[in-house]
Design brief:
With 112 residues, the chain is mostly helical. Helix content is 68%, strand content 9%. A two-stranded parallel sheet has the order 1-2. Helix 1 packs parallel to helix 4 and helix 3 packs across helix 4. The protein starts with a helix and ends with a helix. The model has no long low-confidence stretch (mean pLDDT 94).
Length: 112
């Protein structure tokens, strides 16, 4: 399960036409207003950044049907949650497993 504050950041990006540069100021203003604690601000900020990253990518590739996410399981889980919020399915691939499989295949081709 993704931290709720990350989901809030993703939802804020989806609901607002402002760019990330404007949304970043909401992190501090929400702390000042008491609607976001300093301890959970990092999750909200991560959601803003990931949501903005996906929104930008989808603007460049509006025809995308699915996304393969390769990386650490913790990070790909955050991106998978954000992609789902944008209505796009994804497949998570552990980065270590992908590297090992690629290196194994390269070794076999070179030395087999």
């Amino acid at each position: 399960m993704v931290e709720p504050r990350v989901d809030e950041g993703i939802a804020a990006v989806r609901a607002c036409l402002m760019g990330l540069e404007s949304l970043l100021f909401t992190v501090r203003s929400r702390q000042i207003s008491g609607t976001l604690s300093a301890g959970t601000a990092d999750g909200y900020l991560a959601g803003l950044c990931i949501g903005a990253d996906i929104r930008s990518a989808l603007a460049l590739r509006p025809d995308a049907r699915s996304v393969a996410l390769i990386g650490s399981p913790a990070l790909t889980a955050l991106y998978a949650s954000a992609l789902a919020a944008f209505g796009l399915p994804s497949r998570q691939i552990d980065g270590r497993d992908a590297v090992l499989a690629g290196l194994t295949q390269a070794y076999r081709k070179l030395f087999a």
